[in-house]
């Protein structure tokens, strides 16, 4: 199995599976989504309380506010970010295996390239190459 540097937030302890299988898996379908909703500012005028929509929006993930963003912020879901990278690598002719770790507001897609390796005279298997993509709402 290919080794990646791990840290406490992203242990990356799953096996790599063929990319086609990963994309069709329930795990990929269930990647955490976020929503962008408008924020409202409380106003008081002549003892009347009302709320006016501000230019700011809130990013909500798993029923928690993750971030406040401006009006031009484009919310990109984990799935969209990962598919964009996978499609680009596929167009370049790269075959991959992958694994996903979803922590809600942050998700990782780790890939190992099956048809790209560095020849290493000290190791007959060679050195595997890969790529890691982080998608986050925060």
In short:
This protein is an alpha+beta fold and 138 residues long. The chain has helices spanning 19-23, 26-29, 78-91; strands spanning 17-18, 34-45, 48-61, 64-69, 96-102, 106-120, 123-136.
Q: What does it look like?
A:
- Strand 3 and strand 4 form a beta hairpin.
- With 138 residues, the protein is α+β, with helices and mostly antiparallel strands.
- It is built from three helices and seven strands.
- The strands form two sheets. A four-stranded antiparallel beta sheet has the order 1-5-6-7.
- Residues 1-10 have low confidence and may be disordered.
- The chain starts with 16 loop residues before the first strand and ends with a strand.
CA radius of gyration: 21 Å
The residue-averaged pLDDT reads 89
Main beta-sheet strand count, sense and barrel state: 4 strands, antiparallel
**Total strands:** 7
Shape: elongated
Physical arrangement of strands within the biggest beta sheet: 1-5-6-7
Features:
7 strands; disordered N terminus; four-stranded antiparallel β-sheet; elongated; alpha+beta; 138 residues
Secondary structure layout plus pairing:
Elements: E1 17-18, H1 19-23, H2 26-29, E2 34-45, E3 48-61, E4 64-69, H3 78-91, E5 96-102, E6 106-120, E7 123-136
Antiparallel strand pairs: 1-5, 2-3, 3-4, 5-6, 6-7
